[in-house]
Structure formats: C-alpha cells, structure tokens
Amino acid sequence: MTRVAEHLNRALHDLLAADPDVHVLGEDIADPYGGAFKVTRGLSDRFGERVRSTPLSEGAIVGVGAGLALAGEKAVVEIMFADFAALAFDQLVNFAAKSTTMYGRPVPIPLVVRCPSGGGRGYGPTHSQSPQKHFLGVPGLHLFELTPFHDAGDLLAAMFALGQPCLLFEDKVLYTRRMFTGGVVDDLFRYELTGGTDGADGTGGTARVFVEGGGEPDCTLVVPGGLAHRALAAARELLLEEDLLCELLVPARLYPVPELPGLERARHVCVAEDGSEGGTWGTEVARVLYPRLWPALRRPITLLSAAASVIPAAPHLEREVLLQPDHIKRAITEALS
Amino acid sequence: MTDIPVPKLNNNDSVYLLTAWTVKDGEAVRAGEPIAELETSKAVEELTAPQDGVLRHLLPEGAECAPGQVIARLGADGDAPDPGPEAGTGAQTGTEAGAQTGTGAETGTEAGAPVITAPARLFMDEHGISVEQVAALGVKVVRRSDLERLLPAAGAVPRPASVLAAAPEPPVPASGAEAADTETTGPETAAERDGGEGTGLVELSRAQRRVAEVVERSHREIPAAFTAMRVDVTEALAFARQETRRLRALIGLPELLVQATGGLLDRFPLCFASPAGAHRARLPAAGVGVGVTMDVGRGMVVPVVKDAGGRPLAEIARDLMRLRQAALNGSFREDDLRGGSIMVTLHTEEAVVTAVPVVFPGQTCALSLTAPRPEVVETAEGVFTTRRVVSLGLAYDHRFVNGREAAEFLGALRSALESPGSED
C-alpha cells in the first residue's frame, strides 16, 4: 500500500532523476525538514542544489520558477498552503501565463506550481481553503488536481508536456490516504482511467468509478480528486440505503474542463467541490456540459460546494462549512426524489 | 464476547491500515498481549488485548479500519465461534462507518454473496423472498428493481414474519437490516442486539463520558436551587472596551465577572466552600480559583483561573486567553484544570435568555452568564433609552446556601458589574 504523499514523493524523485533540467523550489522543502507535508522529503539530500528552500515570498518563488522555465529549464514550485497562492497571482497570471505568447513565437513555460489545499484539519480560515476557482479562465494557465486514482508521475509528465504553466492542487486530506491500484476501490466500487492518461491529450485523463455490473447510473457525480473519498462515501450510502446508483467522474485536469466520458447515459449530473459557494468550478463544468447534455438532461445540474463562509478553526464548525458526504447524499436524494 | 474497537491513534487520519494480526484467529491471548499492528500515516501502533480470551478476527490483514470500528472479539475458551454473518455486518455497511471511512469500509459479505440494498431488503421481507432466491439472481449488488422480477416465481404472497423465522434459512449476510437478522439468526438477547453495530447507537467521546460522570454525580448528590438576576452591563461593556485598549489584553464581561467573583470570598465564604460531609464545609485554602467553561468543539472543559480575587484584571485576562488557546489546541496542563472553588458557565450565544448551570461536585455554587441583549428603559426625565443587560444566574447547593445569600451574592456581583473599575 502506498499513501498519496509517499506516492507523490516518489514521483518527484523519479522526475528529478530522469530529467536533469528539473528544479524544485519552495519554503522549507529541503531536508531534513522535507516540506510541511513531507512531499519533498529526501529530494535535496539526493539532488543537491536543484532542490532549494527559498525565502518566504510566494511571488518571488513563482517568479523564479517561471524565469527558470523561460530560460529553458523546468521548475516545480511548492506553495506551502494553497491559500498563499494569492500572493503569487500576479506572477502566475501576468508573467508565467503570458510569457508563452509574448515573444513573437510560442515559448514553452514548463512550470508546475503545487498547492496543498483544502480543510478538515482545523487549520483555520487562511490555511484550509480550496482556491481553485480564483485561477479559472486564465488563458494559458492550466489547473490540475491530485487524485487517489491518477499516477502522479504521469500527471507531472502530462503537465510538463503542455509547455504551459500548471497549478497542481493537492487536497491535504489525500496525503495520508492510500493510492487506489488495479482498478479496485473497495468491495463495491471499481475504477478505470479513461482518455489520455499517458499525457497525449494533455488532460491527464478522467477516473470513472462505478459499481461492477450495476447498470445505468441514476446520478453521475463529477468531483475533483480531493473530494473522491467523500463522494465515494456518499455514493455507497446512496446505493445501500436509497437504492440510488451513482457513478463518479474524477478528472485530473480541472481547467480547461476536459471531455467527461459517459455523461449522455446519466439521469442526473451533480458537480461537487470544496471551494466556497459562488463563482465556482462547478459552474464552469455546468457551462461546458449544458450545451452538450441539454437534450438529455431531465433536471438542472446540481452544484454543491462549501458554504459561503470563512472556514472556522473549531472542528465542529469547520465540518458544517466544508462539504461532507451527508450534504452530497442529501442533495442527490432530494434532486432525484 | 468482548468487542475490540480500534482506538483513536491520532488527529490526522480517518482510517488506519491493519498491517498484521500477531495472534491468529481462534488462538488464546492474555490481557495486555499485542494482538495486531495498526499503521497510521505516521507510525505503526500495537493493539493489545483488553483481557484474557480467545481472539476472533473480524477483518483480514491489509484492510483499512476506522477509529471505533470493532475489528475483533474476545470470547471465553468454550465460547462457540461467532456466527458468521454477525461478523462484519452493521457498522461496516451502516451509515456511520460509511461516512467516516469513505471507501475503506467493507460490506463484510462473504465471497460471492451479494450486497443487498436496504430498500431491497425491505422488499424481501414484505414479499417473503429468500436469500437463496436473491443469490440465484447472480448479481453482485441487489437493488429493489432486481427483485421485482422475482415476484411471480416467489409466489407473490406476503408471508408473516413468524413463518419466516421458522423457515430453515441460512443467516442473512451483510448490509445491516436488523429486522431480517434477528428473524433469521434466532434468539438474541436485547443486550446483544443493542450492542450490535448499525443499530443507530452512538458511542460517547472520552471527553463527553467524563462530562457525563461529573453531571451525573452532581445531580445525584447536590440538591441545587437557582436564582437569576438582571444586570445592566452598559457601562461594563464601555469599560471593557476602554480597558482592552489600555491594558492591551482582551477584556470582556467574563473577565470582569471572574475578577468580581474572586473578590467576594470574605463576604460569602460558603459560596466558595467545598462540602465536607452533610454538616460541614471546607473553605478554600489559598485564594479563589474560578473555573470557566470552554467548549471549542473538542468537548467541554472547565479550566481554572487561579487566585482570581487578588490579582489585577490584566493578569486575569491573560490567564483566560492562555486557557482559551489551550482549549483550542487541547494542550491543557493538569494544573490548569485543578483548584476551582466556584464555576462560571458562559452562555454567550446570542439570544440565550438564561441558563441553569450544574453545580460542580466539590463546590457549592455555579454562576451562569448570558450574552448582553438590548432593553428599552424609561429614564428619570421620562424619555426612553436602550441599555444592555445580561442574565446572571446562580445555582447553589441548598444545604449550604439559602435564597437570601444567593440573592445577596448576585447583588454584590451586580453592583461590581454595574459600576466597573470602582474598586481600583
């Protein structure tokens, strides 16, 4: 069994070993500390100066990363908490994303900015957010999210192959969970990776999670990787208690929204995420899906997100704000009743 | 049979991995002997046997398990092996574990046996469809719609439950429908049934169990009465704002009340006493310790502000702030929770009108403070104005304190709060 953090750590080791052009930058990432979530553990000991702990300035780190990429190298930048990516907004939007097209010819910017996101740990308002939505719709900026289904090495390769800056969101709750392997989720659910997992189409592919021999789903849940376990818990209860069959789609790339497989068969579509309500990723998914599914849809797409609230530090209050399996279950039961 | 649940090993993980059983299924163990290894995201912990007995595994090696989930049972030497179906039913398919562990929870079915949804199970009961008939369908997950086509074959005649119970059917596997389980697995004591998983029972947290002990004892031992008084805190609130700036320490009504309470030991010694038998009470030895209730979602605690009568407001405020932070981090020292001679319970949620506190065993009095609310009053000039008031309540052990002292005690606190800072 491999836990997600360990899996990602190995992928970074492999990446640095395979490609001498890759640099890793971030706050406190060097050994022996190895990063706030230990994802960069062992990298600086093994690869020396290519892995650097930096001053506490997100703007500077992302700027240096983009500069390295512009100069023909490749960079992986760690933002300690995704919340702090706001400090690098200018470098991402006005420098990294623009540099690909500002020099008279396309210039590759192989830059991956890793952003540990999400709550559930009682870290409070500014260390628990899922700020994906703030980076949607920037031309030349791609948003990915780690999932327990997708191989992290393939994902890093897919992002670098794009030659454009990418944000990789990593929900903290995933780090300690195990990677799913061999197409098996648990006793009920199976999964398969569809489309472009080798990075050929630049989307990283989408994991489809389904009940073997279950037939046509009553509802298809589209979720980013960080919500995979909560969506699975909801799907399990919906099946065993309410007789409602759900299928999950977990795309590796959040933006641009990739082609999501099999939706024509769905009786209902629900998009769930842990960002705060309003101007969400889900509305972007719905925007893409409505023209395609309009003739088949029987009811509006259900959009679920965290509440429109600052995230409290007290665990019982935090639970009420962030999206829980119960919320998903209730919303789907309600929509299909 | 004694259940062996998974203990909570840390705050980060919702599931742990059962890496190995160190005692085989069916082997005898002694209390304290390690029986299994559980891997968290950070470390491997040993699980030990709580008592002597014969171990029965309920989970295979390599499976994930959630805190609280029963993964093994201990039986006496002669105990019949656990009936198969009970092992792994309930919680593993039930709401609780499903929600907590997400995908980790197994349905616990034996290999090949179908998973039956709750609506499907109900349908089986209503129409007398047997598990064998369902198994013969050859589907892995049985939903209600799968069963509807079985109806003609099953005779479509609803059978009463008694007939069902008498029928020599194999035990119903998995996915906790208690009704079906009890009918087909034969007699079962109420205790067993209630103790079973998936029955909707909730295990109290350690913190809440401690609270339960204390309030139960208080209710059993202390004949408490209650008086509440309205206190105008308009000036106190202004004073608190001013002192917050001046002292650079957060001052609010709780801080002012803790200090005022501490100053009343000489006038109302019995309100701070500790009952010593039915006819005597012991006065506090060294200063007044005021316990203050705090609940930040990790369970209620009552840390104590020491020597609340003899110290300046700023010190009391800093103490309280440190205790609040400790409540948030769960980093109390043992000493923070000792030495209380009276308790102040805070009910500062908006719109709480009044609250009756429970007198802490070993004390005679408990105060309650609500959030300020506006109140319109007529002034001496005959015009109307608003003031801010709170309800200040006192629950007291009537063996030691009577209504008159209670009212005087509250009156003294009221004076202190209505003219704040006058003692300095």
TrEMBL record, chain A:
<keyword id="KW-0786">Thiamine pyrophosphate</keyword>
<dbReference type="GO" id="GO:0000287">
    <property type="term" value="F:magnesium ion binding"/>
</dbReference>
<dbReference type="InterPro" id="IPR033248">
    <property type="entry name" value="Transketolase_C"/>
</dbReference>
<dbReference type="InterPro" id="IPR009014">
    <property type="entry name" value="Transketo_C/PFOR_II"/>
</dbReference>
<dbReference type="InterPro" id="IPR005475">
    <property type="entry name" value="Transketolase-like_Pyr-bd"/>
</dbReference>
<dbReference type="GO" id="GO:0016491">
    <property type="term" value="F:oxidoreductase activity"/>
</dbReference>
<dbReference type="Pfam" id="PF02780">
    <property type="entry name" value="Transketolase_C"/>
</dbReference>
<dbReference type="InterPro" id="IPR029061">
    <property type="entry name" value="THDP-binding"/>
</dbReference>
<protein>
    <submittedName>
        <fullName>Pyruvate dehydrogenase</fullName>
    </submittedName>
</protein>
<dbReference type="Pfam" id="PF02779">
    <property type="entry name" value="Transket_pyr"/>
</dbReference>
<keyword id="KW-0670">Pyruvate</keyword>
<feature type="domain" description="Transketolase-like pyrimidine-binding">
    <location>
        <begin position="2"/>
        <end position="177"/>
    </location>
</feature>
<keyword id="KW-0560">Oxidoreductase</keyword>
Automatic annotation (TrEMBL), chain B:
<dbReference type="InterPro" id="IPR011053">
    <property type="entry name" value="Single_hybrid_motif"/>
</dbReference>
<dbReference type="InterPro" id="IPR003016">
    <property type="entry name" value="2-oxoA_DH_lipoyl-BS"/>
</dbReference>
<dbReference type="InterPro" id="IPR001078">
    <property type="entry name" value="2-oxoacid_DH_actylTfrase"/>
</dbReference>
<dbReference type="InterPro" id="IPR050743">
    <property type="entry name" value="2-oxoacid_DH_E2_comp"/>
</dbReference>
<keyword id="KW-0808">Transferase</keyword>
<protein>
    <recommendedName>
        <fullName>Dihydrolipoamide acetyltransferase component of pyruvate dehydrogenase complex</fullName>
        <ecNumber>2.3.1.-</ecNumber>
    </recommendedName>
</protein>
<feature type="domain" description="Lipoyl-binding">
    <location>
        <begin position="1"/>
        <end position="75"/>
    </location>
</feature>
<comment type="similarity">
    <text>Belongs to the 2-oxoacid dehydrogenase family.</text>
</comment>
<keyword id="KW-0012">Acyltransferase</keyword>
<dbReference type="Pfam" id="PF00364">
    <property type="entry name" value="Biotin_lipoyl"/>
</dbReference>
<dbReference type="InterPro" id="IPR023213">
    <property type="entry name" value="CAT-like_dom_sf"/>
</dbReference>
<dbReference type="GO" id="GO:0016407">
    <property type="term" value="F:acetyltransferase activity"/>
</dbReference>
<dbReference type="InterPro" id="IPR000089">
    <property type="entry name" value="Biotin_lipoyl"/>
</dbReference>
<feature type="region of interest" description="Disordered">
    <location>
        <begin position="166"/>
        <end position="203"/>
    </location>
</feature>
<dbReference type="Pfam" id="PF00198">
    <property type="entry name" value="2-oxoacid_dh"/>
</dbReference>
<keyword id="KW-0450">Lipoyl</keyword>
<dbReference type="GO" id="GO:0031405">
    <property type="term" value="F:lipoic acid binding"/>
</dbReference>
<dbReference type="GO" id="GO:0005737">
    <property type="term" value="C:cytoplasm"/>
</dbReference>
<feature type="compositionally biased region" description="Low complexity">
    <location>
        <begin position="86"/>
        <end position="111"/>
    </location>
</feature>
<keyword id="KW-0670">Pyruvate</keyword>
<feature type="region of interest" description="Disordered">
    <location>
        <begin position="74"/>
        <end position="111"/>
    </location>
</feature>
